[in-house]
Automatic annotation (TrEMBL):
PANTHER family recorded: ACYLPYRUVASE, ACYLPYRUVASE FAHD1, MITOCHONDRIAL
Pfam families: FAA_hydrolase (PF01557)
Protein name, entry field: Fumarylacetoacetate hydrolase family protein
InterPro entries cross-referenced by the UniProt entry: Fumarylacetoacetase-like_C, Fumarylacetoacetase_C_sf
Amino acid sequence: MKIICIGRNYADHIAELQNETPDAPVIFLKPDTALLQRNQPFFYPDFSQDIHHEIELVLRVSKNGKNIDEKFAPTYFDAIGLGIDFTARDLQSQLKGKGLPWELAKGFDGSAPLGATFRPVADFADLADINFHLAVNGEVRQRGNSGLMLHPFAAIISYVSRFFTLKMGDLIFTGTPSGVGPVRIGDQLTGYIEGEKILDLAVK
């Protein structure tokens, strides 16, 4: 099972981090050991003092595919969930500053919490109008809508499948909106899709 992540997919998030807008989807991977399921707690690692939350809609791949045409891409995922791309921002900045890969800042153990449930694609009237948000200790920190993605679901699947064969059970984190920020030990993170609580995570 692969965890495929899309970076810089919301213009407001690109602006807040002062990054350049990419011409194509920015792709990085997380190992399966990054996955945190069933609302298990996230244990703050000792190699960072600046872990940031990044809430994202997550696609569950439902069949194998390679070089998928964009018009057929919607048939390759059957459910949408919610996940957090935890990022060690201090470590990422150090690595980027040296021109080095930054997987250490993105792919560490527990860096990909996944909501306890997925919602079937059929539940959504319009895949380009899905609202989601993240609250930290009851305060809303991030709000997003799938219609604001620079690269929508079908484009992501088509592009990714040019380089990586997609397999049933793969997860695609589709990018985060603005409002990313640090988490602290003792925080409670709750994530929602269309008002339904999907993710409930304690930081320890």
